[in-house]
Amino acid sequence: MNVLSFDVAVIGGSLGGVQAARAACEMGLKVYLCEETDWIGGQLTSQAVPPDEHDWIEEQGATASYLRYRKMVRDYYRSLPQASPAMRGQDRFCPGNSWVSRLAHSPRLAHALLCEELRPYEEQGLLTLQRNARCVSAQVRQDKVESVTVRGGDGEEICVRASYFLDATDMGDLLPLTGTEYRVGAESRAETEEPHAPQQGDSQDQQPVTWVAALALDKERQPMERPDSYGEFSRVQIDGVPLLGWTAIGAQGLSRFAFGDGENPDKPLGLWSYRRIQYPPYYTDGRPEISLLNWPQNDYVLGSVVDNPRAAEHLRLARELTRCCAYWLWEQGYPVRLDGGETGTKDGLAKAPYIRESRRILALHTIREQEIAERLNPRPVRLRDSVGVGHYAMDLHLTTRTHTSMYQSAQRFEIPLSAMIPVRMKNLLPACKNIGATHITGGCFRLHPVEWTVGEAAGYLAAYCLRHGCAPRQVLEDRMEDFQALLAEKGFQLHWKEEK
């Protein structure tokens, strides 16, 4: 087995993983990055989820690198020869004219931009990027990860040694392999004292995964093949509500949805424009509308995928559910078709499932509901150990066992370094949605700009520790201001600015 040595090994090419690798390379470190699919970028690319953001994102609330990425996206669309005056004439526009995001755009473009971001470091020999590869085992000694074994798509294995290991997988895959203490699923109220935590905890009561697909809307309805499992899924009901239907169970009870804008007087915006990424009036070449199918109807609530022996079967069924959902729309007369042009696949489904809930490290500090709930915090709480800011509601989709959902307003929050340091492991850091949050607060720490910030901060933290010969816990205890000065220099917003 080949043995490769690096300063930092980033396991998982998620959105946070890409930023962790970039940050560490920027500091001159030799970095290894592996990704299970052939696309880096996780939820933004291979999982085909447009960036969910917040009301302040145009002015503040993210790192300089994230805001720079947003500008690159708009500059790309504005520069297209086929861009219409309707798009060219806007400074701030959403490429898909969607209502879930201010920047709904192509997963294919997102992947290309992230690759371009990493290319200089590959060319300099600082970054080794291995695609179609996943971690399969780890060697740990005296609370330190010594090496990780990675298996490539050809079955060949390599041994990766590094001073720091960053878990940037979407499900926290490195945590059980290294024996790192973690939680997953719902904690009990006794564990967290959170007002909305259940009386009984359940590690298998997790947020659902969704296997996103890209749908094009044609002028005329084209034939679509009926999935073999369509009859089965069309009969599935969740607490008496058909899974494939316009009524869905949510945090406020039953909600009635519609396909197009204006079809439902109670909800004037339909699901089609919700995650639309291509809007014909923005172009002069007559291209079709394209939207990403990530709706209540294809949230897979029939089983969990983390620490579940049946995970592979549930992932297969999640794919089938999405295919059936597309066919259900077609059967109702909507001229939709699966389109793989934006997902990089033949069948139009994303390369990987959208993972909302990860394993979460047992950290020096666990972020709980009462610390960020808006009703309990009239203004943002200023933290001594902040490494960035974020905002999103505590949003739990219908869970896999109790079918519980939640949507509670969160105050604008700061990301504590203490939630990124495991209670025991010395050289392992979270770099995705696996920080020390709870089942409830994880619902807002999973969003794109927050994951980006966590990953980027983890990369700079590893570099800082190597440069100064100290451990993450020492940074927290004795070097916090110095580390924050580095982050500020790199364009991090550490505290929320007061609203005017």
The helicity comes to 25-40%
How much of the sequence lies in strands comes to 15-25%
Radius of gyration: 22 Å
Which of globular, elongated, flat, extended, rod-shaped describes the shape? globular
Question: How does this model look, in words?
Answer:
By secondary structure, the protein is of the alpha+beta class. The chain has 14 helices and 23 strands. The protein has helices spanning 15-26, 64-79, 85-88, 107-124, 174-178, 189-192, 230-233, 271-274, 311-331, 369-372, 442-445, 448-468, 472-478, 480-489; strands at residues 2-11, 31-34, 127-130, 133-141, 144-152, 157-167, 182-183, 209-210, 213-217, 237-238, 241-242, 247-250, 253-256, 276-278, 289-293, 299-300, 336-338, 360-361, 386-390, 394-396, 406-408, 413-416, 428-430. The strands form 8 sheets. Strands 1, 2, 3, 4, 5, 6 and 23 form a 7-stranded mixed β-sheet that branches. A 4-stranded antiparallel β-sheet has the order 14-15-9-17. Strands 7-18 form a two-stranded antiparallel sheet. Strand 12 and strand 13 form a beta hairpin.
Quick structural gist:
It is built from 14 helices and 23 strands.
Keywords:
500 residues, alpha+beta, FAD/NAD(P)-binding domain, 2 domains, seven-stranded mixed beta sheet, four-stranded antiparallel beta sheet, 14 helices, 20% strand
